[in-house]
Amino acid sequence: MAQQHLDPTDPTAGTATGDALAGYLRARATEFLRALRLHRETGGTAGGGEESVDAARALRRSARRISASLHTYRPLLDAAWAESMRPELAWVSGTLALEHAYEARLERLLQALHRLSGATALPGRPAAAAGPAGPAGGPPATAADRASLTVGAAKAGALLDRQLTLARTRAHSTALQALGSSRFHAVADKVAVLASEVPLVPAAPATELHPLAAAAQERLTDAVAALPLLTAGHPYNAQALVHGLSPDPSPHPQDGPWHQVRLLMRLHRYAREVLHGDTPVDARLLTAGQALNRHRDASEAAAAAAQAARTPRITPATAYALGVLHADQRHEVEASRFAFQRAWLKETVEAV
Amino acid sequence: MAQQHLDPTDPTAGTATGDALAGYLRARATEFLRALRLHRETGGTAGGGEESVDAARALRRSARRISASLHTYRPLLDAAWAESMRPELAWVSGTLALEHAYEARLERLLQALHRLSGATALPGRPAAAAGPAGPAGGPPATAADRASLTVGAAKAGALLDRQLTLARTRAHSTALQALGSSRFHAVADKVAVLASEVPLVPAAPATELHPLAAAAQERLTDAVAALPLLTAGHPYNAQALVHGLSPDPSPHPQDGPWHQVRLLMRLHRYAREVLHGDTPVDARLLTAGQALNRHRDASEAAAAAAQAARTPRITPATAYALGVLHADQRHEVEASRFAFQRAWLKETVEAV
């Protein structure tokens, strides 16, 4: 059985049925409602308080998990309900994620500019490690932070600051509007119902979850098998920067399969949560997932640097700094693939 | 004995004395004179024929080897003669090397621009491999080659082409002037004497060469031990691009120790040649040396891209492309250090 291959030592393996799914969905729905109440109480003002940020994160977190479960365990759930619910939950988590994403992207790019200038870490911030960005650790760099930069790096930083802060502010307004919309109220109403009553199909309570969880894992495994892992495992393969100066301004198409694996890994992780509850996630799976998060972040940061370089009337020094920054983030993309390859192979070898 | 550690299976180890050194120097001096005659016959015109290029390479090759032997085996040679000879030989090989260096640098940068544009290799040229640049394979890219590039990449390529072709032409004139100078004639006269009569000290014919060769190896080993090899062996350590946007426009000081090891490795190799003649160089030593050549080439190419970006009145698109190119070459620097670390450790482990 595929699931036993995944975790042969788990004493609960092989016992979960639709009842476990219902319990999981009720718990996530309750979390969603609690986070929503907290978010309303803390106001959700721009650049908001820490509580408001935490509440938004908890909302996204539960929305993602409900949505993932509707996908993985679809045969056990009322089909019409599940199909109408998923895009709405994706809209909620996607809309709420944008503000944080712009903030983290700016943080990542300013940290990189400092690193590339040979400067020490920004005051009061963690050292510019190659690892994934932690939770946003403060406001973006001030003008004083940039005193140690060259004119080009400072101007590039100021440009990115303007553009990404504007994008973040807009994302914040969009999120607030979304949370006040009738569309969102309809979602919240449905989640409130879900917190007490999960629309299972009649056969669901006796249906085992494991084959469906195993199928989710198989989709992940298949997608990983299609990745160019051999190349990725070869350090300094220089693949991520191919097309770095391509005339095509769209995001790198080579990143797509990796982003897809990132999503499938998340689905796999949430599918396991339904079976194993709060059991800590396998450390190697966690490392692989973090590598893919970093891949996504670096890919989007590189695109933001390239985008900023197309701003009219910038100076050559600014453009040069943005070019260096773009290439630096594309190498972060390549480094993340290498890290994923190492983590993934380690897992496979040790699981046999 | 250190030499035995170096090559315990060599049947000739422990037998070479000053006579071997004299034979080696006479042979190199003869090569020098032959190459000089060939160079004069083939004219040495600008961008010259293949024979002229070969002759110049042979001149540099023998000058470097004579100079290295004067250094490593100094105690066996007339001190005043050796000390007056070395800087003159360094001047000859340095002056002759520049033209080729500019040509290879341009070739490397244009190849990189094509790679970064997602284009295939330049017509009639080897694929843009990450390995060391081969012998220059043709004229610089034409305008037609650049049709597949973005405006920025094409303009960056044209700018580098102008600047490095101008530098190469100047280097060629300088080399021709040097070869016609009285200073060079004095060097050639001394080499002509060396071809028949090597100024050994009286004790030299009975003096063993191995301790001096071992000392050259030890200088290499010590210099390698001082390199940050632990970091270099960690893929994607992002060290080579630190200071990539630093206000200091001088070449990266972090490259210095690696350049120094490259020179010491060459001295070590030539010291071995005196002992072992035409025995093929150890494959791992060769790999390590090639990695350091690539390190030097990428370091200088990165500096040329940064230098070009300071040209007045370039467009932002050109500057952006040069920034990407600079970062790409700095990552080549990092990749070369990684390759050197691997080759070097392999050698050490297997030599024990």
Largest sheet composition of chain A:
none
Note poorly predicted spans of chain A. Answer: 1-9, 123-147
- Tally of individual helices of chain A: 11
Summed over residues and divided by their number, the pLDDT of chain A gives a mean of 86
What helical percentage do the residues of chain A reach?
A: 55-70%
What is the first-to-last residue Cα distance of chain A?
Answer: 14 Å
Strand content of chain A: under 5%
Largest interface by Cβ-Cβ < 8 Å: A-B, 41 and 40 residues
Question: What's the shape of chain A?
Answer: globular
Radius of gyration computed on alpha carbons of chain A: 22 Å
Keywords:
352 residues; 11 helices; globular; disordered N terminus; CHAD_dom_sf (chains A, B)
Q: Could you characterize what this model shows?
A:
- The structure is a homodimer of 352-residue chains.
- With 352 residues, chain A is an all-alpha fold.
- Chain A folds into two domains: 1-12 and 208-352, no CATH class; 17-126 and 148-202.
- Chain A contains eleven helices and no strands.
- Chain A has helices spanning 2-6, 18-42, 50-72, 79-116, 151-179, 182-194, 210-225, 229-232, 256-276, 283-309, 316-351.
- The longest helix of chain A is centred in the N-terminal third of the chain and has 38 residues, at 79-116.
